[in-house]
Amino acid sequence: MAAQIIDGKAIAAQVREEIQAEVAKLAAGGVKPGVATILVGDDGGAQFYRGQIEKNTGTVGFNYYNNTLPDGTTEDEVLALIDKLNNDARVHGILALMPMAGGIDQNKVFNAISPVKDLDCVNPANIGHVLLGDQLFAPATPSACIEILDREGVELQGLDVTIVNHSNIVGKPVALLCLNRNASVHVVHVFSKDVPAACRAADVLISAAPVRDLIKKDMVKPGAVVIDVTTMRGDDGKQVGSLEWEGVLEVAGRATPVPGGVGPVTNVILLKNALVACKAQTGTS
After folding, report:
1. Using CA of residue 271, residue 277, residue 281, residue 285, what is the dihedral sign?
2. Span 145-176, pLDDT tens digits
3. Which of helix, strand or coil describes residue 13?
4. For domain 31-114, which architecture applies?
5. Rounded CA gap, 149 and 62, in Å?
6. Of 1.10.110.30, 3.40.50.720, 3.30.70.1290, 3.40.710.10, which CATH number belongs to 138-263?
7. With 54 labelled, which of 25, 203, 248, 275 sits at a CA distance of 20 to 30 A?
8. Coil, helix or strand for 51?
9. How far apart are CA 108 and CA 103, in angstroms?
């Protein structure tokens, strides 16, 4: 029997509706979530991401504050802007879009963002809270994986989870989130001895490896839930993931497609993080 394809767009729509309902409640009390982005230079990818954030915040009724600075802006000027946004009561979430032109130190930028406004969870203090399991919110893509599993009714406690990726933005934080749900977690990567064996042992397999068709059907445990975080451009310009899709569908119980899987959910998790941040800063519920 072919695997059930998990509809990330439908899950994202559910989350978006829930956010809109919460925003309406806040509006009745005169509160409106606000998100600010910081972009330095004209990197195409960062500009596209900024536009998507502006569009997404608009769909749920947030205020959006665009801070686009020219190439040649100094690190001190960026840090001064962050300090201003940290102290602006209208702004509840800050996103520093990378890369920034001019050799600006990414770590200094991330460290300067107030943890309660750090929607991407790039400030080390927020990763520390994820480690302890007492976070206000967690990085968007790892949180999207957990959101999908929750919406699919997958109880992680006691399950074997394999994560193919050990990056700071996906692999490590999603491993922590699964550990905090009492899963047994195996993290593998390019230096691991036997990636296929680790994958075959997983009840839940999360792949964020930037390699097309890396996960073959013989690497998947029958009936496993497979989450594909990877998004790349194929030779034809279309989005592709890390699963050998048709083969994996023959073995898995459920799987996320690319596109239409983790990506749409990640976008709304950023909004959910902003909503949580707004409530924390305004003392509302």
Report:
1. positive
2. 999 999 999 999 999 999 999 999 999 999 99
3. helix
4. 3-Layer(aba) Sandwich (3.40)
5. 27
6. 3.40.50.720
7. 25
8. helix
9. 11
